[in-house]
Structure formats: structure tokens, C-alpha cells
Amino acid sequence: MEPLFQPFALRDLALPNRIVVSPMAQYSAEQDGRVTDWHLMHYGTFAASGPGLTILEATAVLPEGRVSPKCLGLWDDGHIPGLRRIVDFFRRPAGGRVGIQLAHAGRKAAVRPPWEGGAPLDGEGEGWPLWGASDCAYPGRRAPCAPTAGQLEQIADAYVAAAVRADAAGFDLIELHCAHGYFLNNFLSPLSNTRTDAWGGDREGRMRYPLEVFSRLRVIWPANKPLGVRISATEWVAGGWEIEDTVAFARRLKSLGCDYVALSSGGTSPDQKVAAGPGYQVPFAAEVRSRADVVTMAVGMLSDSGLANDVLRRGEADLVAVGRGMLFNPRWAWQAAVDLHGSLRVPPPYLRCHPDMRDLPR
Fold it and tell me: What is the pLDDT of residues 325-334, one digit of tens each?
């Protein structure tokens, strides 16, 4: 069997294959962060099309942690029923395993959805206060507030409360967002963390708060369920966070019970110089997997199933996450199974859609 279709286990979560649908913001929630029918359609499509794991988009642990007013939230018990409806769809015979990414947008919060231009909200009536590791503004945005020790405690409590709600909604897995210039990533980066207290300074100080949040989640998240982290492996900016830092961070995460790290990059500064192309982030996953001895998820322009399969064949990652390729073709996993002669779950009502589908081993 090709490695893309081999099963994989994270704690008690048995994945039927190594294909993951990346968390991808939809900017389609109600103004109070609740699920809409769009989300049921969007995620239901993936539930029916066979990936081993689907991870819901970045979901805010606080209202001020949203990227836009239309982002999903999990800061209130009222968010649970809508998310539970999505999870229940995954539990049906046509479904699969489903996780959720918990996030706080930090100093990059309060902007319009991309198709409305993505401009910052003004903070007077339509926006909200920004929070960052320190008061360093993301270029072109308002300056964030630097939280006090007491406020950091409140934000950590919000992550914990959101994780409790995620369990109540039935999610199989949580991914903690520590990438792309958002709140927890603000602490890691020397470009956005200029604090002089215990939460800043050298790498050890800058890692302290994200590690504290992760540790609290691991304590309350069920022991049989996986907890992973998405990291920006490098910021692509001189003087910023680099792969050496990521290896050190991944080792610490593993010691606290982290089950995998998803290796993305960038997002802290518009000055980043990214050498993008198919598989361009795979070397990060390979290096962290080798040097930190942790399960890794490769991400970034892996839309070609042959390339995704080769990443696993070469031992560069344990899982591959596909984002934009899945948006363009939600049946990506079906096509990969046909091309690579893989084993995949296909809902019976869809077996007649393609002659090869009836012959797929299941």
C-alpha cells in the first residue's frame, strides 16, 4: 500500500490514512462567531470524501481573538451546538475524524474578510482592541496592548475553557495555533516580543507563555485524545525566529505531551522573503522530525498527490496536510486513491460516480 493510504495512530485516534485537510479560514460565521450552514456544507464535503483527518479552521478563544468579525468562535457555550452538528456528521458512516484549531489572532486581529479587501477595522464601533506579546504593531495596523501578568492568566484560561468546549462538542483532536504572526507566535518571535519580564527576552523566556498554554491544555484535554501545535518554522526575515528555534520548541512541546507539530512558516512580517513552490516547507518537517524526534505534519503546496506520497515515502513527515488543493477539489483524496491505487472510504451513494471508485479496496 502506498504510504499516503497507510493508517496512522495519534494516541487512541486511529486515522485510516495520512491525508489531512488543513485548517482554512472561511470568514463565514455569524457576527457572534456561530456556525452557519456554509460550515456544515464545507466540512460535510470533506467528511464524505475520505481524508484521514479534517481540522476545522482557526477558531477564536475570545471575541477579540478573531481575525475578522465573521470568524468562528468557541468562547461561549452557545457555540457548542453548531460545532457539534458538524462533528456528528463526521461520526456517520460516510464521515471520518475531525479536529479543531484553537487560536487568538493577536495583533493581526480585527480586519475585513479577504474578499472585502482585508483592511484593518478602525477600532471605533466596528473593531476591537488588539493584543500582542508587546506593544509592537504589525506594519500598517494599530498598536496592540501588551497584556499584564493578570491578563495573560485570563487569556490562558480562555484557551482552557475553549478546549473544554471542544471536548463537549465531540472533537477528536485539538491543534494549537502558534504560527503566522498570531498571538502565541507573537511571544515566540523576537520581532514581535520586546518584553523584559519572564515572558520575553531570550528564547527560553519567549517560549514560556506558549508552553504554559499548551501545558494547561494537555492537563484538561482527555488523555486519549491528541493535542498538536502548528508552528511557523521560520519567519523568512533576518533576525527572526529560525529553524533552530523551532527544533528547540518542538523538543519542549514533546516533553509536555505534544502529539505532533505541523510545520508552516512566515506570517510575522510583511518583509518576509519566501521561496515558495511545491513542497517548499517539507524540509522544515523533515528536520524537526529528525532532530526533535516528534511526529510531524508537512504543509504547503502539496496539491500533487504524487508529491505528497513521496514526502511520506522518503520519511520527511508522518502526515501531509492539503489546503488550497482541497478547496479547489474537495474530492482530492478520491483522485489520489485512483491515481495511486490506494484504499479509501467512499460513501455508497457515490460509488457510481466513477468506474474506478467501485473497485477501490475499502
Answer: 999 999 999 9
158 in helix, strand or coil?
helix
pLDDT above 80: residue 61: yes
Q: Grid coordinates in use for 121? A: 477595522
Handedness of CA 10, 16, 21, 26 (dihedral sign): negative
Question: What is the reported pLDDT for 353?
Answer: 80
What CA–CA distance (Å, rounded) separates 17 from 110?
37
| Cβ burial 160-196 (10 Å sphere, 16+ → b, else e) | bbbbbbbbebebbbbbbbbbbbbbbbbbbbbbbbebe
Length of the chain equals 362
Q: Residue 15: which pLDDT band, with cuts at 50, 70 and 90?
A: very high
Residues labelled as active-site residues: 182
User: Radius of gyration over alpha carbons of the chain, in Å?
Assistant: 20
Distance between CA atoms of residues 59 and 110, nearest Å: 14
Helix, strand, coil distribution of the chain in percent, nearest 5: 40, 15, 45
Closest by alpha carbon to 21, among 173, 227, 201? 173
Q: What is the dihedral of CA 216, 7, 99, 30, to 10 degrees?
A: 170
Angle at 232 between CA 230 and CA 237, to 5 degrees: 170
Average of pLDDT values for 24-47? 96
